[in-house]
Write a structure and sequence with these properties.
- The chain has about 150 residues and is α+β, with helices and mostly antiparallel strands.
- It has 2 helices and 7 strands.
- The chain has a 7-stranded antiparallel β-sheet with strand order 1-7-6-5-4-3-2, covered by helices on one side.
- The longest helix is centred in the C-terminal third of the chain and has 26 residues.
Length: about 150
């Protein structure tokens, strides 16, 4: 049996960075609104809170995509105006997914945003996994480009 057909667990990481001409406060205001995804994240139809908490550790959101799929995410780390980290608990073909969105001020009006994640798949073939990883990379990239366009308006 060829290795490409054998299903197993795979581990991957994705990291995308973009530079935005905007103030740190404006960028943080946008990304820290954790249910504000429909304005910049690709294919998100709506995002709602599943928690009373709106920010910081313990805030939970449910994201609904254009195709009807849903992902539940929990904020597990938060440093104001610097970064937040979240995990997906439902809705992805993964056993584990943890992602961080962080900001780095390059100058007074230039902010660099990095979106990176680590994930471990459910059983899938090598080909399925490389397609999934490529999809995640282009998803992050397109979403960050939307964010840049929105904030540089």
């Amino acid at each position: 049996m060829s290795n490409t057909l054998k299903k197993s667990f795979h581990t991957g990481t994705v990291k995308k960075t973009i530079t935005i001409k905007s103030s740190k406060d404006k960028v943080w205001r946008k990304i820290s609104n954790i249910v504000g995804l429909p304005t910049w994240v690709v294919d998100v139809k709506k995002t709602v809170y599943l928690s009373k908490k709106r920010r910081d550790v313990g805030a939970i959101r449910l994201i609904t995509f254009a195709d009807g799929s849903k992902i539940e995410e929990h904020i597990i780390a938060w440093k104001n105006k610097e970064y937040f980290t979240y995990i997906a608990t439902e809705g992805l073909p993964l056993r584990a997914y943890v992602a961080t969105i962080s900001l780095k001020v390059k100058s007074k009006k230039i902010v660099q945003i990095t979106w990176q994640s680590y994930f471990n798949s459910k059983k899938m073939s090598e080909k399925q996994f490389s397609e999934f990883s490529a999809f995640m990379g282009s998803f992050y990239e397109a979403s960050l480009k939307n964010l840049k366009a929105l904030l540089e308006k």
